[in-house]
Amino acid sequence: MEHYRPKLQSAEDNDASIYWLSLLSTSLGVWPQKLVGERKVWWKRLYYFMIFMHWYNTYLQVEFFFHNFGALKTMTEGLCSFCSISLTGVKIMRLYSFSDEINMMLNKMRNHEFMQKITFLKKGKNREIFQQFGQIMKNKWKEVKINLQLYSFSVGVTASSYSIIPAVINLINLFQGSSEPRRFVYKTYYRGMENLKYYSPLHELLFCSESLSGYTTFAGVIAFDGLYVLMTMHVVTMFKSLNLIIKESTSAGFTDEEKQLYLHECVDHYTRAIMFMDDINKIFSPILILQLFTSTSIICVIAFHASANASEGDSQIFVMVVYLIAAFYQLFQFCWYGQRVQNESIELPNSVYDCNWHQCSKKFKTKLQLFLLNVQKTVDISAYNLIVMSMETYLSIVRTAASYFTALQTLTEE
């Protein structure tokens, strides 16, 4: 009997794939506590400070809405940032509460624990299978690394534009001696300080506070969304490897008893994949329903605000366009990787049917038929068991946002 053994330093290579994700998230206090390591004391203080500032700035945006209640155009200016940072606050707290579970899942992934549990007969084509396993894992981590780098850059540009653009405009107005009021990062209302907030040093302190919330949002988004991508890709690789074992289970070089042994390994590996999938849904599913609602609102509101102010040439339009692109990208991330899991699970029945089952014993065929009945059920990631994360859902969200955008325009014209 043999077991798959990953290459030396494989775990370190996997860690390198998510290095920047963990570094950025840890430095801003939003990485799961169990993954921080020896720096837990200072990190916990940083976490509480960052989460407090985050929710404080969320409260200031709520004050803005109540202060401008009834002014539709003014309210929509701050709605997208409010939806984003409030949802990110929930995501950060979710990661913190599931720190132990996430740490356990990541350790299983980085050490290829699921692959090493599969038992192989020495007289099989193990070398070829192990090479294919290694290539599947290598491709997974490579795709994850490229995706997270691109995604971090996209979200980082969006978060930075909210603070850098108004800061630059404030500096230009200062040097030109313009009397235009100083700008802030978000649309907020400071009760009792509205007349004082434009004067130094209070303006600088409040501006830094809002900027801090923006970068906490950036770190929280890439941490939560990045872990979602990483874990769903692992399920995809587990299903891909299962297809290889299914084909090997009916090899002509095995006796009937040995074929049944391989079939039991297929069942066990499939069970482990489903259990891992259940853990992913447990962590992410409740947040995904909020994500879909938030993405719909953000896409609709940003498109409405950009079209309503396009003729004014305000710098805020640029921020809105960047935000709109990032919102589409974020929604695509969740739906695309949910679709990937679906696609691989759909391939499993085909692999079972395409193997050389017709050359096997009746007992093997009976067990294989039972296995086929199990894998025919499509495995998917759901948003609180209500909406399946897929490309069909993505297109549905875009169409819904477009219809809401049309309704807002009509309401404004009336």
UniProtKB/TrEMBL annotation:
Organism taxonomic ancestry: Eukaryota, Metazoa, Ecdysozoa, Arthropoda, Hexapoda
Pfam families (UniProt xref): 7tm_6
Transmembrane segments: 150-172, 212-231, 283-305, 317-337
Stated name of the protein: Odorant receptor
Keyword Transmembrane among record annotations: yes
Main location (coarse class): membrane
Topology in the lipid bilayer: Multi-pass membrane protein
Presence of the UniProt keyword Glycoprotein in the record: no
UniProt xrefs under InterPro entries: 7tm6_olfct_rcpt (IPR004117)
Family label: Belongs to the insect chemoreceptor superfamily. Heteromeric odorant receptor channel (TC 1.A.69) family.
Subcellular location: Cell membrane
Organism: Aedes albopictus
Keywords: Cell membrane, Membrane, Olfaction, Receptor, Sensory transduction, Transducer, Transmembrane, Transmembrane helix
